[in-house]
Amino acid sequence: MAHETESLHAETLAISFGYDPAQSFGAVKPPVFLTTTYVYPSAEHAKAVHEAYFDAAPPPEGGGYIYSRLNHPNLDMVERRLAALDRAEDAAIFSSGMAAITAVTLEHLRPGDTVLHSRPIYGGVDNLLYARLSAFGVAPVGIENALDERAMNAAVETAAQQGPIALIMLETPANPTASIADIALAARMSRQIGERQAGRRPLVTVDNTFLGPFVQTPLAHGADLTITALTKYCGGHSDLLAGGVSGAKVLTEPLKKLRMVLGSHLDPFSSWLLLR
């Protein structure tokens, strides 16, 4: 993805990337595909579409969709555009920012794990970590000052006493205090933790909602995943809820499979609104 878009300005990507008018009767702007199911030219094509989605087989010529809870054309467009803006290989879009964050935690945290997080952290995430995931044996540990290496080390030691560290979750700037975290420092600490944990390196996730892809690119500073509540500045009109996760395809694809089970995809109409 990056090599296709690195020479293009964010303004250009935001307006048109991810949509091919040739696939929609030449319409200048994307249409909204309000359908739940799809037809196929043949049974063989239907089989190939299903095998491509469920078994990672090569997609058939012309592609195809199965059911809109799995994927749909408007969702594809939004994901390609967000990935381009975040300078990522791929993106997964969800029905809200919290749905995106919840998917990341469910995919990467297991009972007995610990998760480091910057302070303060969004209230919904605080509730998820301390009132929900803690009930399943996940221990959250806050970093008092995510700009200070000593404070980061202290949090690492506290967390390591409770279990393996699986995630480092940063929110920078934080909502609503605008507190800042050092993404590159967290990435460096993640590598050091990985050495201590026999190669199990905690992923670094960054909630980039308050700056968005026009101002900050967390992946360029060492983050593994960029998480954005698209409801806010990326949505821009206060008329939709959405969330996105950008990063390497090996990390986003499992989130899309989990999204299928949770039913937390973004619907076609909201995806179409978001494309504005």
Task: Walk me through what this model shows.
The protein has a single domain, classed as Type I PLP-dependent aspartate aminotransferase-like (Major domain) (Aspartate Aminotransferase, domain 2, 3-Layer(aba) Sandwich), CATH 3.40.640. Helix content is 38%, strand content 13%. It has helices at residues 2-5, 10-16, 43-55, 73-85, 97-108, 123-132, 149-160, 183-196, 249-262, 268-274, and strands at 90-94, 114-118, 139-143, 165-171, 203-207, 225-229, 243-247. A 7-stranded mixed sheet has the order 1-7-6-5-4-2-3, with helices on both faces. 42% of the residues are buried. The model has no long low-confidence stretch (mean pLDDT 94).
Protein topology:
Layout: H1 2-5, H2 10-16, H3 43-55, H4 73-85, E1 90-94, H5 97-108, E2 114-118, H6 123-132, E3 139-143, H7 149-160, E4 165-171, H8 183-196, E5 203-207, E6 225-229, E7 243-247, H9 249-262, H10 268-274
Helix pairs in contact: 2-4, 4-10, 7-8
Name the poorly predicted regions: none
Please give the alpha-carbon distance between the first and last residues: 21 Å
The overall average pLDDT, rounded, is 94
The strand count comes to 7
Number of helices: 10
The second-level CATH architecture is 3-Layer(aba) Sandwich
